[in-house]
Structure of Alpha-galactosidase:
Amino acid sequence: MAKQKLGYTFLVYLVILFFFASSVSASARVAPLLQSYGNPIFGSNFHTVYDTSMYGVFQLSNGLATTPQMGWNSWNFFACNISERVVKETADALVSTGLADLGYVYVNIDDCWSAVTRNLKGQLVPDPKTFPSGIKALADYVHGKGLKLGIYSDAGSQSLQCSEPVIGIPIEKDVHIVSAGVDYLKYDNCYNLGIPPKERYPPMRDALNATGRKIFYSLCEWGVDNPALWADKVGNSWRTTDDINDSWARLKL
Ligand SMILES: *[C@@H]1O[C@H](CO)[C@@H](O)[C@H](O)[C@H]1NC(C)=O
Ligand SMILES: *[C@@H]1O[C@H](CO)[C@@H](O)[C@H](O)[C@H]1NC(C)=O
Ligand SMILES: *[C@@H]1O[C@H](CO)[C@@H](O)[C@H](O)[C@H]1NC(C)=O
């Protein structure tokens, strides 16, 4: 019995030690973020990271992401089987189920919305079979429901999307998509040629800013090169892992 109790106490200590070690290592990773703002850990400025009156000091200052983004993204369930009908029905469902009232306002189209061939100006255009009315019309529909529309592209230096690599297209050619009334851009990491995300993601931030429209910039660089240490001034959010799915095994990654 005593032996069992000792074993139990040991286990408790082990668990405490584990949490202590993880919090120390998390602090060590966050510390460089805070160094320029005073005492790196538990200093007088530590609380300001979470202080909303300090908005813009620790994050991209485009007025967005004062709280985490909430809504729907087409990829996990539909993958490439999307259409403007799916997007419209989803917008309708967010409203009719009451989710929109709870803050789930983003309706985000993922990969496969565009035609494989670009237009004569070298711009991405919606697939005429699945998005015949175009992105502007879809944005108007979604906005009419009080929701926001998101779209997708890729930060591969010479390609545009995961489904169809397109070689040799400069980033500026993609910005027109978001100026067509879109509120959110997910920027993926396919065909990245091993170029660090720190180099590939800022140009789109600047291009989005130059449109004058407030566009949520979601970095999807798969957690490469510890985005928590540098992405705060590049995007409104960044993903920390590879794709997840609706299984506990995958969420644990
Ligand atoms: C694609 O989506 C449509 C509904 O929009 C559905 O009827 C069809 O079964 C789906 N196809 C596949 C292969 O999942
Ligand atoms: C552009 O960037 C400046 C400087 O960070 C910021 O004040 C402004 O709100 C941004 N504008 C848009 C539309 O994102
Ligand atoms: C989800 O991820 C787990 C863990 O990686 C994998 O075993 C499983 O096959 C995936 N399920 C689907 C539906 O992709």
